[in-house]
Amino acid sequence: MSRSQSPTEPQLMHPRNRHQGRYDLKRLSRVTPALQPFLVRTPAGDTSVDFSNPRAVRFLNQALLKADYGIQHWEIPESYLCPPVPGRADYVHGLADLLAGDRDGDIPRGDDVRLFDLGTGANVIYPLLGHTEYGWHFVGSDIDETALRIADSIVRANQLGSAIEVRPQTLRGHLFHGVLRPGDRYAATLCNPPFHASAAEANRSGRDKRRNLAARSDGPPRASRKLPLNFSGRDGELWCQGGEARFVRKMIRESVDFGSQVLWFSSLISKSAHLPGLRAELRKAGAVDVREVAMAQGNKQSRFLAWSFQGNDARRGWWLHAPDRQS
């Protein structure tokens, strides 16, 4: 979740991202006082957040959501994935640009624009950001019933029940089947897939990440810090059998059955090495348009992959009747 605090760092995030440059930690601490104890001095003498501490990351998210998006209530258990708000916002803005490309550059806004969040989790972060920024209506799904109850409580606490719906995925082994209904029409789907292929791999990655983050802050020596196995997240959020590549290949295969109901399918892709194989899978599936949208946050490079089974003319025509078709 960390990003460079250097004032000379180039602005690599999306230009509409609210989180350019340094965090205003005084402002964030005022709206969420619980963040204050987790502020630290960096070796350069600046004030930062102890990103190696999962509690600090959660309180920072609470502060960002409250200060910048008006989300007053956002609480998730420590065991659930705590996503980086700036990075997730970049994905949302990138999707907005993708949709605008089918509308002569006009970004679609309002609750007639429906999106589907595959694996919304307890944090329900994409619906919160997408609705706040663009007024979009969201349906989010997950196989974890407890996560959905937490997500629904966040939605209701912020009085967003008319804008965000959560649906359980009851068909084990399926992603879109079981939750996409015959009358549904979506401008886009989005997904943060499990990155790792095993719990051991996820744990190693979490330990490495926290050691690296701890090394960037003053405070207790790293040897004295307790480093939990996970940075945050549960099975299904951080890992699945076959990892990210297998998960997205399954998305592609299932998306074929819903190509007339969805303009753009999409997924974050953490490893660029997966892209050639996924492009081959998309050619096999018959996708007529495939996009790779680059994103960056500090020194971290990321991207999302988007594909459509509808050509340019069909996508443009779809918007002419979008309020009627997106039931």
Outline the structure in words:
The longest helix has 17 residues. The chain has a domain of 200 residues: Rossmann fold (3-Layer(aba) Sandwich), CATH 3.40.50.150. It has a 7-stranded mixed sheet with strand order 5-4-3-6-7-9-8, sandwiched between helices. A two-stranded antiparallel sheet has the order 1-2. It is globular. The protein is of the alpha/beta class and 327 residues long. The protein has 10 helices and 9 strands. Helix 1 packs across helix 2 and helix 7 runs parallel beside helix 8.
CATH architecture of the domain at 81-194 and 240-325: 3-Layer(aba) Sandwich
Q: What is the CATH T-level topology of the domain at 81-194 and 240-325?
A: Rossmann fold
Which stretches are poorly predicted, pLDDT < 50 over at least 5 residues? Answer: 1-10, 196-214, 216-240
Secondary-structure content class: alpha/beta
* CATH class bucket of the domain at 81-194 and 240-325: Alpha Beta
Count of discrete alpha- or pi-helical segments spanning 4 or more residues: 10
What is the helix/strand order? HEEHHEHEHEEHHEHEEHH
What percentage of the residues does DSSP assign to strands (E)?
15-25%
Number of strands: 9
Set out the fold topology.
Blueprint: H1 25-31, E1 39-41, E2 47-49, H2 54-69, H3 85-100, E3 114-118, H4 125-134, E4 137-142, H5 145-157, E5 164-168, E6 186-191, H6 199-215, H7 243-255, E7 262-269, H8 275-285, E8 289-297, E9 300-308, H9 312-320, H10 322-325
Parallel strand pairs: 3-4, 3-6, 4-5, 6-7
Antiparallel strand pairs: 1-2, 7-9, 8-9
Helix pairs in contact: 1-2, 3-4, 7-8
